[in-house]
Fold:
Amino acid sequence: MLDIKFIRENIEAIKQVAKDKKIDLDFDRLLAVDKERISLRQEVEQLQALKNDLNAMITKAEGDEERKEIIEKGKEIKTKIEIKEPQYKKIKEEFDALMVKVPNIVSADTPVGKSGEDNVEVGKFGKIPEFGFPIKDHIQLGKDLDILDLEKGAKVAGYRGYYVKNEGVSLMMAMMMYALNKMIEKGYAPMIPPTLVKGSALFGTGYFKGLEYDSEVDEVYQVASGDKEADGKSSKEKKFLVGTAEPSLLAYYSDEVLKEENLPLKVCGYSQCYRSEIGSYGKDTRGFYRVHEFMKVEQVVLMAADEEASIKMHDDMLAISKEIHDELGLPYRVLSICTADMSAGKFRAFDIEAWMPGLDRWGETGSASNFTDWQARRLNVKYVDKDGEKKHVYMLNNTVLPSPRPFIAILENFQQADGSVLIPEVLRKYMPGNMEKISPKK
RNA sequence: GGAGGGUUGGCUGAGUGGUCGAAAGCGCCGCACUCGAAAUGCGGUAAGGGAGCAAUCUCUUCGCAGGUUCAAAUCCUGCACCCUCCGCCA
Structure:
């Protein structure tokens, strides 16, 4: 969400951003509704002021006659308010619904593009391995090593379900522990956040495109039945499964006013993530690449409202992802995300993609985003600056390490001629017996 | 599954229909006293929105949403959340 004043003053620029982000929004209607909203509110407030005056007069009224007269007058005004107020509320609702769809502006270095094809590669790192033997993809490796069972996953969990087994479990948990410790060493406070949350956390971070959950467009699972509350009755409030720790970590601070000297706040979260993949029918239907649930370590930062500093912070966060890919020994590239591939709230975004030899392509293993104050307005998170002024914080987030895709990259990049897979050195200390490789079962 | 208590300003907490945006204390800010500080004394101090250069004026808000009433922190209904006890369970 943006400030309405900012929208009024920069309407042409915002119209252009919306076009670039492929967001269809009637800005002329928004401005018209804004005007009407203001005039109706003023009318209502004037009537309320009048009513308040009369109420105060009643207590001082002398005699029943005077009282009666004032009460009559008050009723008259109340009737007027009862006509105007619903008009105001209706226009306010329309205003709010339009406001939440207004996209954030983008950074000067964000490429303008028509689709994901126009994302710009800004760096390529590591060496794509050359194999002197016929290679397998992660599906085959998972089977041969007996560490990944997609058939049983589909049997029990349905489409995109999976079981990780045996050394695969150790490897995956080692990845998570490595990522978590890395972040703690970098000064991020670790959290295990809730993954079953109220709608407000998802609205506030922009995972609902409108004011309410819309199962047609929002890639989020809603839990069908309410849970039992302390009084034994079923909760009527809807609950959702988060697709990343980001909403839970950021909503932790919702409705709070932070102190500037405590900023930036750096937090990382380990959580299970659930994605309905509603917009990706038929995409990546095979394998472990696109699944409905996985584990992930995520990082978020809340900082003072300073665009330049936020760009630097964003780069620093991305640098952590690069360091992790370097340390894992995965070849990767970094993409600057173009407008068309960017969600409404983002100011600047990068994806990191690891090379996956078995799939013979790059695969997204992380995404770093700077939302400036777009999320903070929705979540109502502010801070008091040095001059005592309240401002919305800037919020940034970045993938530290998700469980499935780097797992694929590790299997496919580090497979050996004998069918085994070498464990990246940095992970070995988290493996049972400091295991160095996973060997085929037969 | 059962029984009860609660949600008020930065915090503690009083307030059961108008004099309440709200006592008192703590905290914080200013001033006095002091060489300085502590202690003490005096004064100020909720948030959000709107109009105005400003002084200031004004609207909304006592968990949230409705309702009753000329008038609601206070009465009624629904919802959310927190807590205590018993039972069951990981």
Notes: The longest strand of chain A covers residues 293-303. Residues 227-234 of chain A have pLDDT under 50 and may be disordered. The radius of gyration of chain A is 27 Å. The CA atoms of residues 250 and 300 of chain A lie 7 Å apart.
